[in-house]
Every structure is written in structure tokens, then in C-alpha cells.
Amino acid sequence: MRQLFLYFLSSLALVLLVASASSATPKKHIIFFGGNLGFHYSPDNLEVIVGDTIEWSGDFTKYGLQSVSVPSGATSFKVDSVLTFQYVVRKQGEYTYQNPIYFSIGMRGTILVDTVKHGLTNEGREFFLGMLYPNFNAADPPSSRYLQVNAMINSYYENDVRVSYFDSVGVEQQPVAYHIGMGGYLQIPLNRKLMQMDTASEKHAYRSCHIISRMPITVEYISSGISSGGSYLALPAVSLGKKYVVASYTDNPSGSGAHSGLDVYPASGEFLIIASEESTSIEITPSTTTIGGHIGVLTGTGATGATHPYTIQLNKGDCYLVRSTGHDDGNDISGTIVQATRPIAVISGHENATLGSTTWGTDFMIEQMVPYEYWDSTGYISIPFAESKPPGDEGYGDMYRIYAYDPEIANVHMNVVGINGGYDFEVKRFLPIPERFEVTGSTEIYSTNGKKINVMQYDERNYNPDHGDLSPAPSMSTVVPRSRWKKNYSFVAPNFGAAHQYVNIISSHTEDIKFSISGHPPEPLTSLTRNYLFGGISSQDNSLFGSQYKLNIPSTSFIQFPFTFSSEYPFMLYYYGIYTSGAFRFEYAAPAGMQLNTGVAPSFSITIDSSNCTSWHFCVSDTSKTDPGIKSVMLIDDPDGVYFEPGEQLKNVSFDTLLTYLPNELRP
User: Fold this and answer.
1) Pick from 37, 59, 50: which is nearest to 109 by CA?
2) Distances (CA, A) of 114 to 47, 48, 313, 596
3) DSSP conformational letter for 194
4) Residue 635 half-sphere exposure, CB side, CA atoms within 13 Å?
């Protein structure tokens, strides 16, 4: 059992966050009925957490109550007397109830119960960024002068940020310091020379960018340039995992020169591993044979279906790039398994991908992989990206791919609005990646046998020179399961002047969502231009709707705009952009945020000794019998309740200026 002792002598409103899936204090929710409400329940739609109490308040002798459906293992209920009735929800899922007489005129309701959502999120105080190089710039070297790579950083509170790189032997260089005002942002050009890996071999190199902040920040990576657009949501070091499955796409042998007048320059799928700690051992089992000659399981020279794992060693800030050969469109580095002894980041993508049979649609792709620990078996719900026009052109719609880590089969069902019966897949590690092309409706994907999966969405947009329409694609984005949705999102919308900027929002309470730009007062979503509304997107919750909104950013201005979206209810937001100006055609897409917790109940014991009036002594112990250990402890000054529900902050604390952490490795 590991213990962590904290001595605090500081003055701030304090939140003590121990890195794990954290538990929340159970709450009571009251549902009223009868009287002035008549034959209705108020509210008639609730989203609560396992362990919460639901109380119905009214005259049950006039308006009886009964459950209609409850999750497997939950207790049904029926009430026809008393004035109040309490029910503690113990099982995750959907509960429906009604009055047995007046249900047909609206006296019915729904309770959606989820597991605790509080814990780590994409906001953090330490990040490692990695760069993948779009190979259009190698096929046409003059184009590389247009390639820009930036870190977009924003902070709710006033903040200080440090950005540093490493020399060739791993010594971290003097950081550059930045200051952010409350609600402000930074656009930091990243040093391409210090981050670019050698693409001709598989050799480790200290090519990461290290970012540390005083308060939590959101970090987005974005690249722009000719066929070089891509973005990913950076995950904080404290949330990095040890198990990953690579998501990419098949090789593009005709590469960048296919329709640009350039010579053929094959494009590969690729991924970059970044170590966040010293002495990290990493095992890689490639799905296809790599440019370094490591034999793949499924495709490439020497592939027979057998696994050929190999091991590398990395230190903090050290990077290792793996690429497919790029010469055969039957080869695909997707599905490669990466396992490490210490937390790592995995940045995956494609140098210049072509989806399916699209003729003019090629683009760079990049995304940070979500650790297997944070996957789920259900709740992968998404809506289409904004479409090219006129509709029906080749490349119309989106493609979905489903990834698995487990060696046992996951039985997966995919509901698509407008497709009767949907689609079924069998998914497991080292089976060919199942995919579905040209999906034009909203989509819900889940495992029917409880196995965890990961889902990626690829935009099939296709530039048609006969119509001069929107830019080429693809771009890929992680689909975040519903258990990882948040109540607030902050991101910086990159502004390239001629870009079309969009957000996709999925929520059961769209009317409750507010947004603000550059710290201005919140506005309702109706202030944005809605392109399309998607209903009936979930077979398990008919209250969910998806909407495409266009961000109203002046196309003549290159000023960046920080956005904040918030609601009392969890929702999901994806941002993406499409740039079209002459030869500059590219796209980028990424989730705007996500919860990062395993869904496993924590096993922490926290004791506080305040007997000494001059100091407090905290002792945090992990009592878990499996994989014990404390990953991190953070002190967060959160008086506005941005990162925690109001009432969950520890504010009754007054300290001096000295702060000591033990053990030292937890200090960023």
C-alpha cells in the first residue's frame, strides 16, 4: 500500500484531487407532480449518478406511481399511498415510470443513471506534444514554407505557462515563460526543427515539446498548410496510459503527387510514442510491416498472422516514430498494439491519406490516442461533419472504424438513422479493422457483450474541381463515449481567414447550453447559425439531439477566438474547420474535451491531522488490492467551481506560502 503525505502551508481556496476515477457525494433530486402541475411530473427527464436519491413529492392516493422499465438488477417500484417516496438508484441505465391511469396524456418520465463522471479531464498542468510531418511538404519542398504548427492554450483562471524542448541527449532546455490573463489564450508557434522526426528510419530522438502550467489549461495541437491540416486534443501527462491501439488508415502509394502535378510520393500511416517518465520500456506489436523492417501481423512483407512484438526503451521526452512502408494500399498500421511499463503518449495519423475510392480527397491526419483504460463498451454517439456541396459527389458522408484491444471478440452493433437494422461487426485485436463508408446519418455504436471498444470518425469530404467546393479530406476524430462527456468545454478556434469553422454538439438539453466568445457574457446556442438538426440519434435515449453549428468568425480576420460552452447537463462537443483558398486546402477535427476516468470506484483512504494549529497533515493511501499506487495529487484553486461541482471544493482552508510534496516525483 503506497502512501502520500502532504504538508500544506499556503493561502488559497483548495481542491485536493487524487488522480483516479473519483467518487462524488450522493445527491437528492425531487420530482413534483399533481396540484398546479396537473397530470405531469416536473422535471420529467433527469440525469443522475449511481447512488443518488430520487424523491417523488405529491399525492399518491390520487396519482399512483409505477416503474415501467428499469435496468437489469435494479428494483422496480409501485406506490399508491403516502405523500413522498424515495428511491436510491443502484444500477446504471435508463429508468422509465408513469402514472398507470394518466400516462397516455403525458404523466410519465425518464431517469438516466450513469456512473460517476468526476475525476481527471483533458485540462491539466503538464503536457507532452509530438509532431507528425505531412508528406506533401516532402513531395513539394517549397510548400513546406506554408506549414505552421501551433499549440493553442487557454485557461479559465489567470495563469503562467512554461514551454520547453530537449537537446539531443535528453537534457531539457531553458523554458520560455508565458502569462495568460483570466479567460485568455495563447497561440504558441511550435519549433518544427526541434520536433521533426527522421521519417526514413526507426530511431528514438528527444523531439517532444514539454508544457507546464500553474493552473489547469486546455491544449490543442493544430497544423496548417497545403494538404497539411490536422489537430488533436492534447491529454495531460497525469492521464496518460500504458495500453494503446493505433488508429490510422491504409497506405496511399500514389501519395501527395496523385493529383497535384508532382511526382508520386508514397504516404504512410504512422504513430509517435512519447515517454513521460524515465526508464520506460515499451512493447510494440505492429499490424503491418514497418519501414524499420519489423514484421506485421496482418499485412506487409513477412506477415503470416503471427505476432512479432519488439521492445524499445525511452526516457522522459524521448520519442519513437513508427511508419508503414507506404507502397501498398492493402497495408494498414491501424490496430498496432502498444504497451508500456510507464505512462506514454501515442500520437497517430497518416502522412497524406485517401479514403476509399475518392479521387481528389487527400489530406494529412493526426490524433492523440485515448488510452485503453478510458474506453467504454457503449455510448459512442456521433453526427456527421458538415458536407460538401452539391451532395452526392464521391466522398459524401463519413466513415467509422471500430478498434479493439482485447483478444476476445467484441460483438458490436452500429445503429445508423435511416438504415433499417443497422450493421453488426465482430471486433478483436489483429482482426482487419471493421469500417463503414459514406454514413450520412447520426450514428450510435456499442458492444452487445460488454467488451470495451474505441471508435474513430473520418470525414470523407472530397474536393471536386468541377464544382470548386470545400477542401479535400480526410480528417479523423476520436468519438467520445457518453460516459466521458463533460459539462463545460473551452477551446481556441484557429482562424486562418478563409476557413469554415463548425462545432457538432450532442445533448439531451440543448436549450440549456450557453456559450461565450473571448470572455463576453454567455449567449444561447440560438445565437449561432445551425446547419442541421439530428433527432432520434440514440435507441436508448430519445431525448438526445445532435446539431451542427457554424461559428460566426470574420473570414477577413486572423485573430483567434477562445470559446467556452457550458451546461448543467453533460453534453459532447467536437470542433472542426475546413480551409479553402487556392492551393491551400485542408481540414482539421478533434473533440473539444473529455472526461478521463476508468469508471472503477476509487479505493483511497484520506486522513487529516489538524491538531497542530500551524500546519495540517494529510495522508492519502491507496487501499486497492489490484494495481495499487497513487498517480498524482494536484492542488487546484477553483473558487468558481469550474473543475468541480459547486460545493465539492474545500474552501475553508487558510495557509501560508510554503508547500511541500512528498514524494518528489509528483512535482511537475
Assistant:
1) 37
2) 8, 6, 40, 15
3) H
4) 20
**Closest CA relative to residue 361, chosen from 270, 444, 476, 213:** 476
Task: Answer yes or no: is pLDDT of 647 > 50.
Answer: no
Residue with more model confidence, 455 or 82: 455
Give the three-state DSSP class for 282: strand
**Residue type at 27?**
K
Beta carbons within 8 Å of 447's beta carbon, 6+ residues apart: 377, 378, 410, 411, 412, 453
SS3 589: strand
Residues 109, 31: contact at Cβ < 8 Å? Answer: yes
- Exposure of 348 in the CB half-sphere (CA atoms within 13 A): 25
Alpha-carbon span 281 to 277, nearest angstrom: 10
How large is the average pLDDT for residues 508-528?
Answer: 89
Q: Are 617 and 609 a contacting pair, CB within 8 Å?
A: yes
DSSP collapsed to 3 states, 600-625? CCCCEEEEEECCCCCCEEEEEEECCC
DSSP-assigned beta bridge partners for residue 93 = 113
Q: Closest by alpha carbon to 573, among 505, 648, 646?
A: 505
Residues 276-291 have pLDDT tens digits of 999 999 999 999 999 9
**What sign does the CA torsion over 197, 199, 200, 204 have?**
positive
**Dist CA 349 CA 215 (whole Å):** 30
Task: Output the nine-digit C-alpha cell for 464.
Answer: 471536386
Tell which residue, 426, 442, 256, has the closest CA to residue 353. 256
Q: Contact at 8 Å (CB) between 414 and 400?
A: yes
Alpha-carbon gap, residue 359 to 394, rounded angstroms:
8
- Give Cβ neighbours of residue 537 (< 8 Å, ≥ 6 apart): 381, 383, 417, 442, 443, 444, 506, 544, 545, 546
pLDDT in tens, 161-207: 999 999 999 999 999 999 998 888 999 999 999 999 999 889 999 99
Residue 453 · residue 403 · CB < 8 Å: yes
Contact (CB, 8 A) for 573 and 101 = no
Q: Please state, in angstroms and rounded to a whole number, the distance separating the CA atoms of residues 29 and 7.
A: 37
Within 10 Å of residue 617's Cβ, how many Cβ atoms? 14
Residue 171, all three cell numbers: 537534457
Scan for cell 488533436, then name that residue: 232
Q: How far apart are CA 205 and CA 193, in angstroms?
A: 12
From start to end of 28-174, where are the E strands?
A: 28-33, 41-42, 45-49, 53-57, 65-69, 78-79, 84-88, 93-98, 108-114, 120-121, 124-129, 148-154, 159-164
Q: Distance from CA of residue 30 to its chain's centroid?
A: 33
* Cα dihedral 300, 302, 308, 312 sign: negative
**CA distances from residue 60 to 57, 103, 207 in whole angstroms, order as listed:** 8, 14, 67
Dmax over Cα atoms in the chain, in whole Å?
Answer: 81
Burial 479-509 (b: 16+ CB within 10 A, else e): bbbbbbbbbbbbbbbbbbeebbbbbbbbbbb
Euclidean distance between CA atoms 305 and 289, whole angstroms: 12
The three three-digit cell numbers of residue 321, written as one number? 516514430
Cis peptide before 236 (omega within 30 of 0): no
**Which residues partner with 505 through β-bridges?**
547, 573
pLDDT tens by residue, 599-609: 666 666 777 77
The neighbouring-strand residues paired with 604 are 622
Of 528, 245, 200, 191, residue with least CA distance to 407:
245
> Of the given ranges (155-159, 226-230, 423-427), which has the lowest mean pLDDT?
226-230
